[in-house]
Amino acid sequence: MKELELLIVGAGPAGISLASEARMAGIDAKDILMIDKAETHSWVIRSLYPDKKLVAANYKGLPAVCHGVMSLNDSTKGETISYLDAAIKKTGVAVNYREEVLQIDPIGTKDKTQFIVRTNKNEYLTRVTVIAIGVFGRPNRPSYKPSRKLKERIHFDVTSFQARDENILVVGGGDSASEFAQYLIEMGNDVTLSYRQGQFARMNSFNVNALNELKKNKQINILFGSNIEVVKVSENEKPLVCFKETYLEERQYDRIIYALGGTTPNNFLKSIGIKFKNETPNLKDSGESTIPGLFVTGDLLAGKTGGSIIQAFNTSRATMEQICSNYLECEIS
């Protein structure tokens, strides 16, 4: 069983910045380990963001003010990945990919809590465990189930297909929906956006303004107050969309891409002992759970106001301050 001071579950911006904070605080690289069930770090950025998407540091309108070791301005997807690559290398901390946590058991006394962490590959004894996995357990699916015959034409991100000169329906009303639509239009497609509300309420002003400009220039068709009842297979085996609203006729599209957000991995958190209060993890401001030495950081700590890379960096800083103060021999400068 490998012994560690700090085990970080998740190799995204929050996990990487926490490792950076730990190293700067004086913890040896050999005493830290990051694990991630994906095959590479920053899976959400790599898999859900189109190559030309600007990764906004102040996503959702949060100020891009960093309080810790790492900081990032608005950058392209490639620039963001390169920055995080370099940060991992600089820390010297090992990252185990394709490794998934199965169980976390606290042991020891109140004065010296430790954890046995069991994964699908290894078993670890660690003094502090931090969950930094982000909010997207998996993309949300619609309540209706499109036919399996359409599996090559139904998508949940824009990196899984290439399309040009196609008629594409984007479903959703958040920032991802706007960004997917902008990207697909830029790639030369005819795009319709379907949103069940009468106006955008979850979208930042930049993306709202971008859609308004596209609509003004007749480059996008926006269907406010539209609810899809069922998606059928047309005669030429393309998605045939039927809306609940009687004034909206059936419409055929070449593809549908859903941008419905992601599911917070509550079941995973509950399975490892994180207590909840009104379906929200019961955490201190530092991210510490009701189990001493077990922390949650990143988007899961930021809650509904999260979603920013800078926010992930800052929550990791707050988490590391508490770890140094109460558990490990380190000091935040």
Structure description:
The protein has 333 residues and is an alpha/beta fold. The protein folds into 2 domains: 2-138 and 262-326, 3-Layer(bba) Sandwich (FAD/NAD(P)-binding domain), CATH 3.50.50.60; 148-258, 3-Layer(bba) Sandwich (FAD/NAD(P)-binding domain). It has 8 helices and 19 strands. Strands 1, 2, 5, 6, 7, 8 and 19 form a 7-stranded mixed β-sheet that branches. Strands 9-16-10-11-12 form a 5-stranded parallel β-sheet. The chain has a 3-stranded antiparallel β-sheet with strand order 13-14-15, with no helix packed on it. Helix 1 (13-24) packs parallel to helix 3 (77-91), helix 1 (13-24) crosses helix 8 (309-326) and helix 4 packs across helix 5 (205-216). The chain is elongated. The mean pLDDT is 88.
Quickly describe the structure.
By secondary structure, the chain is of the alpha/beta class.
Overall mean confidence score, pLDDT: 88
Largest sheet: 7 strands, mixed
Helix content: 25-40%
CATH class of the largest domain: Alpha Beta
Strand content: 25-35%
Shape: elongated
Structural class, from helix and strand content?
alpha/beta
Number of separate domains: 2
The number of helices is 8
What is the gyration radius calculated from CA atoms?
A: 22 Å
The fourth-level CATH homologous superfamily of the largest domain is FAD/NAD(P)-binding domain
CATH topology of the largest domain: FAD/NAD(P)-binding domain
